[in-house]
Amino acid sequence: MARRVALGLVTLLILSVIVFLIAQVLPGDVGRRILGPFADQRAVDALNEQLGTNRSLVAQYWDWITGFLTGDLGDSLAFRRPVSEVLGPALVRSAKLAVLAFFIVVPLGILGGVVAARGEGRMRDRLVSVGGLSATAVPEFVWAVTLILIFSLTLGLLPSTAQFPDGSGPLTQIEYLLLPALCLVFVLFGYIARMARAGTIEALDADYTRTAVLKGLPDRVVLRKHVLRNALLPTIAVVATQTGYLFGGLVAIEVIFNYQGIGQAMFRAVSQKDFPMLQSTVLVIGLIYLVATLVADILYSVLNPRVRLGSAE
Amino acid sequence: MSVPQQPVGSPLDDALAASPAAGPRRPDEGRTARREQLRVLVRSKTFIAGAVIVGFWVLCAGFGELLAPQDPLAPDPLNDLAAPSADHWFGTDRLGRDVFSRVIVGARDIIVVAPLATLLGTVVGTALGLVTGYFRGAVDDVLSRIIDAFLALPVLILGLLAITALGPSRGTVILVIGAVFAPIIARTVRAAVLTERGMDYVAAARLRNERTPYVLFGEILPNVMGPVTVEFTVRLGYAIFYVATLSFLGFGIQPPAPDWGLQVFEHYGLISGGFWWAAFFPALAIATLVIGVNLLADGVTQAFER
Amino acid sequence: MNRDTQRRVDAIRARSTEAENHLIDAYSGGGVSRREFVRRGTVLGMSLTSLGFLASACGSGDTSGGNGGGTATTAEQTAKVQPGGTFKAGINIPAGAVDPVTVADDGGLAMLGQTGEYLTWSDSKLTLQPRLAESWEPNQDNTAWTFKVRQGVKFHNGKDLTADDVVATFDRLADPDNASAALSAFRGVLSKGNIRAVDPQTVEFQLDAPNGNFPYLVSSDNYNTIVLPQNYDGDWEKTFIGTGPFKLERFNQGQGATFVKNPDYWDAQRKPNPDRTEIRFYEKEQARVLALQSGEVDAIAQFSVSGGKALLTDPNVQTIALKASTHRQVHMRTDREPFTDKRVRQAMALLVDRRALVDGLFEGRAQLGNDSPFSPVYKYTDTTVPQRQQDVERARALLADAGMADGFEVTIDTYDAFEMPSLAQLIQNDVKPAGIRVKLNIGTSSTYYGDAVFGKSRWLDSVMGITDYGHRGVVNVFLGAPLVSDGTWNAAHFRNKRYDRLVRQFTAQSDIDQQKATARRIQELLLDETPMMIPYFYDFLTGVRKGFGGVETTAMAHIQLTGAGQTV
Fold first, then answer.
1. Is the CB of C525 inside 8 Å of chain B's CB atoms?
2. Which of the listed CATH numbers 3.30.200.20, 3.40.50.970, 3.90.190.20, 3.90.76.10 matches domain C117-237?
């Protein structure tokens, strides 16, 4: 366990170096990015001086990483305010969307997978499998536009942006986040259902299930106690691995729904060569991802007593 | 952009690698088993359905100009965004070009780029997987950490950075997607190699004092071809998805190329105004191709699992 | 004219400068339209009351415009609106920190104008209205301008506005050690330290060179120049300190801001109508357009024809179109093959179908460009210069003369914003008949502009490229850096001594006839040399929902909600 955490941290360190190196390859200088191509060169030089972007790469990286380890994420070069002030709210927004999507797609996916598995080979199965597959195949931006067209412009039921006004209650926030969450549901449903289905089929075939049925236990009990647990295992795996996507990969949806989440923050940080912002954002996402997989590992070993952490190899 | 990403070497490995990774095969059983698998393959309905769809698009990729009724590159600004009609089955785009022709001819880019990207990722990923799975120890630890780091890197960042640094072109797109797939494929191959390395034939080869590269590529590789092939076909679907998304975000092929993702990128904002066709049909094309490839992949997976 | 009026006119003339008298003569003689007379007069610093009086007293009854321009918004601005309420507007998201010194984008500048005010306001008709400056006038040779600072104005923190605040504001912006986005506008015109407070109510600007259009440089056109208190020390986002009709209520980075009416606002004629205003940020135009369509906002500051096509036909949306000087420069490097021979450049310009561009790309909401920055919207533009039209035959003849009868290959560089990729594709298609094979290289804003210096920028190094230039109230900016011999934005590497001389001349002049004559010479020179194509100047479009009104925008993307509200 401790070894896993340590290795994870090493990974993050390497990640930060990779991002740093890549960021250096980006063309253009920061001062110029901020002031634009028509600004006077003297002003650009002055800004670079102010922001400290004319120091050596190593110096900038060192400054940043020592700050990061003490909790100071540095200042965003583009916004001239602490990264945490910009990143914090963006993170919260992404989290809200991710959680809402999660709470819809996981039960739905498991349900779909179990239903398909129980009716393996029959119409139910085909519907879920092919339906899920097709939904996943459609790029999320296509879903986004379609849903907006139907629910926002034609029916007028839901807002066309995800950004809820200040001080909205939880119900209003859900109202605004529902459409983008649905896009995510469509994209992830197929994958989760498929995993749940595979797990369920395997469980239904397993010896202990047959034993339980032979013992005379009712279907539902069998289902709940044995099968479900096994269906959950691969689902946990999938959800954990999708966390990275749910936080960092949603740029297309954030753009269409005008939602200032982490994806957009990262996108903008790259275009503006905002090094502190970019580093912090990527690392925070990496951290979330690491935590998610660790939690998933723990859940996995709890639910599946046959596996012990560290002995998988 | 749903790709399974996780650190190499965790129990979750099994959960995800279990299904597609085929079990080990004895070398002597190889050939007969493979022929049997192929037979099952061509009879599978999913495979056939997938093959038909993909086959259609491959045809378009090859003979697009012959099949397209009009010049996909000829603009007609005074006739822009015309609704579908007898003259233009799929309507015209914002520069007045025929959408139907552009969709047909546009198959070429994606049919060329996606498989190449997947191939790159598979080749590099397989090599990485072989090395990390076989050597273990320090090599494995270090390389695996680097692979993990790449997995944790959001795909978009990589794409954005590469394309900003190298310029938008087919080559860059292939490179980016290949780089994204390599770590994922490496993980799967590694899991398969872990199982293989304990086998007798490996020990036998080592006793014969065969050189390491031979053991890796001559002995182990043929036996992990199953999972590798499965990975290739599965990733291919994602590759198409990614190529389209990169174009959608404005990082892919240059205009005026009739690339599907680019077409959606140029026109999705107009849907709300009622001008749905210029974005809808290319998006539909993307979807059908992805589904087709996924059906193919499913067929292959099922065949190799039996 | 009766004797009393005549006496009054004489009195005004007696205290007017030579330039001002000349203008009055031109107007009386019918050579200048009433609208143009008022506009030029305000630039020269004549008071609006005198101008109003003179306009009717000396007018020859000609009320029609001279060279068009500045249509619309009068209806909007005088619309009757209900008092109070909250008005919601959508704008483009500010690209970075909202700091008056560094703002360089349309989202940021719109924010500056919510609470900040300028010495003068350049309105939709390109007339200068006095704001924090009551009046202004030049010295004899336009090398110094004196501005009278308005009295009785308070900043939002209660401090009184004095000349020292104005001096500090401009010293800050002209200081090369500050990261001032306005530095390029002041280059060669105004230097730090040359602004002084003559007395607490008067500021004098000593210019580096004679400039007849200087008041535009301290107007809303030069959007960084909102007047700030002398002791301003940074971090504008915390307070949005200014003298304007609205005060900051709350600023939500990345999302928007809300403002409340300023009860102590100085201008009794323009009291803020809404109790509150909400400005919302939108990253993409499509989101902005959707927001207006769905009623999430009452107005959006700007939209393009290609992005907002739906709005043009939406019955719930009113479109306000302002004629503007916004354009694209399609440069051709005069020092590189194949464009060293001006006949080749002319040929390129003759191959392009401008009419189709205007009608196709902009649905007619644009004006034809004649390959010079002199937009028809400027009064000193000479519209009698023959308009270049598509002429494929002549183009091919020119190419043959230049030895390029078989055409050639060339790459057009640009980036993926606005309609520029479409323009590039259409040019690519238009030149095919002459055997010219165009390859496109469409990057992002950062890959196109690069470091914005020669040798490190595709913009400045490419053989052919398309660059976007936003609206300006005067043509000076467009004539200078992009085209003078050592200009920092001279992508065409154009070096023409006569051109440089003419531009210096034009800049120094303030007399309308002189400017027009010089403009004509410049226009003809550029038409002959054709270092760049300027195919159109397109309109600035604002969208307002039906049932709302009183929104004022400028082609620079300023948005003023002082008179906004639900229509009665």
1. no
2. 3.90.76.10
